[in-house]
Design goal:
mainly alpha, single chain
Length: 180
């Protein structure tokens, strides 16, 4: 994603709807193809893409402020479109294809990479090391003995790590639901 697109997205989030209109051409075709893949009808796919873009245009300042924490706005918009497609299919009493919920190996790798990169930015080296041992399944006592620290320090560092990572929760959920 280019820097120009990021600047336009930030401008849109700050209330400039013309920035979203500038992004429209780069959004439309990829979203249209994604919608067409799901619903198999060109006119319906176009309508669903337009619905998503209208939601973005009509978003309140509060909604736009919530979106400022989203690192990959293109994935968020794809997530919105997929939800629109699923709603359409649900209304038509169609079943959802299983591929809509199965992540690809590339998507899982990309999610892991994004999470690791975010952890490096947010967590201290000590917190990162303790958190990695924790998610590998080590208990607090084992982590404490590996790092020559007390169990209370492990609990405190895990608590601080989880606190910092909670800020990632909504964008992470949005991303993960997009790849599943």
């Amino acid at each position: 994603m280019g820097d120009e697109k990021k600047l336009l997205w930030l401008s849109y989030l700050n209330g400039n709807n013309e920035a979203l209109q500038s992004l429209y051409p780069s959004f439309f075709l990829p979203l249209r193809y994604a919608a067409l893949y799901h619903v198999k009808q060109k006119n319906v796919a176009d309508d669903l893409v337009h619905d998503v873009l209208l939601i973005l245009l009509e978003a309140s300042p509060d909604q736009r402020n919530q979106w400022k924490s989203i690192a990959r706005f293109d994935l968020y918009v794809q997530f919105m479109l997929r939800n629109k497609c699923m709603d359409f299919l649900r209304k038509k009493n169609r079943t959802f294809p299983t591929w809509m919920f199965a992540p690809s190996a590339h998507a899982i790798h990309q999610a892991q990479w994004m999470f690791d990169e975010y952890c490096q930015k947010v967590l201290s080296e000590n917190q990162s090391q303790i958190f990695n041992l924790h998610i590998q399944g080590f208990d607090n006592h084992e982590i404490a003995s590996k790092n020559n620290i007390s169990e209370k320090t492990v609990r405190n560092q895990l608590s601080l790590s989880k606190q910092k990572l909670r800020r990632l929760w909504i964008p992470c959920l949005l991303f993960m639901t997009n790849i599943w």
